[in-house]
Amino acid sequence: MALSRKPHVLVVGGSDSSGGAGIGRDIGTISALGVRTCIAVTAVTVQTHEAVLESHHLPPGLVADQMRAALQANKVAAIKIGMLATEQIIAAVAAVLRENRQIPAVLDPVLASSSGGPLLEADAIGTLTRDLMPLCRLVTPNLVELAVLAGSRPAVDDCEMLRQGQRLLDAGSQALLIKGGHATGPRSTDILVRPRQQPIRFDASRLAGSMRGTGCMLASAIAAHLANGTSLEDTVRKGKLFVFESFQKIEAA
Ligand code: PLP
């Protein structure tokens, strides 16, 4: 069959048997926004909502082969990257991004599940920041991820957070959406930082309760909107609204 001409998002990440996060969430989010998906699986995880029980990593060459086949089969208009598990998988994904620099990539730098189970090997952080992040249109760390990526402790105020963000921009990142700028209180603020531009703040009511997979959903929604040609700033606004409304629907159900 010929190449599908409808815009697709290529989802690169791990499966989560609990259904809370990972590629299941990504595909659900992107499909809900009316955009098609294709996938490259990096890892199969055995998870409940309380724990990561097992994590099996796919060979890096197989991850790259899946990506190249998905790109050949479809008109991929954006790439969403989640769990990468190892340094070798990061290098394989970076190699495919280098071959496809025209396609915007959104990286959710997943380090661990909210239950605390590790999803990326600790020695892979340098490769992530040096080799992969500069190839991505947007990276979406939360405060803990930002600190680890910047080689610091979690920021205690906005100034420190912006300094950590600047360190990653200096290391080559194109744009960061730092999630949860104000870590407590009724409002949650995400901040978009880019080189030589004023930070842009996105303020919303803090979600009551907790839902897993919100990081996956936000990055996926942003990738879906990027695939439709929306500007980066507007994709963030629309992505945040989508996560907020989805959460409200789930709470109300
Ligand atoms: N499991 C997988 C495979 C993921 O990709 C992610 C996040 O992207 C998580 C777990 C973590 O999700 P949560 O923070 O909701 O536990």
TrEMBL record:
Domain of life: Bacteria
Pathway connected to this protein: Cofactor biosynthesis; thiamine diphosphate biosynthesis
Keywords: Kinase, Transferase
UniProt key word Nucleus: no
Pfam families: Phos_pyr_kin (PF08543)
Organism of this sequence: Allomesorhizobium camelthorni
Sequence ranges assigned to domain Pyridoxamine kinase/Phosphomethylpyrimidine kinase in this UniProt record: 16-248
PANTHER family assigned to the protein according to its UniProt record, in alphabetical order: HYDROXYMETHYLPYRIMIDINE_PHOSPHOMETHYLPYRIMIDINE KINASE THI20-RELATED (PTHR20858:SF17), PHOSPHOMETHYLPYRIMIDINE KINASE (PTHR20858)
A biological process term (GO) from this entry: thiamine diphosphate biosynthetic process
Single GO molecular function: phosphomethylpyrimidine kinase activity
Keyword Kinase: yes
GO-annotated cellular components: cytosol
UniProt EC number: 2.7.1.49
Stored InterPro entries: HMP/HMP-P_kinase_dom, PM/HMP-P_kinase-1, Ribokinase-like
Enzyme class at the top of the EC tree: transferase
Name the record gives this protein: hydroxymethylpyrimidine kinase
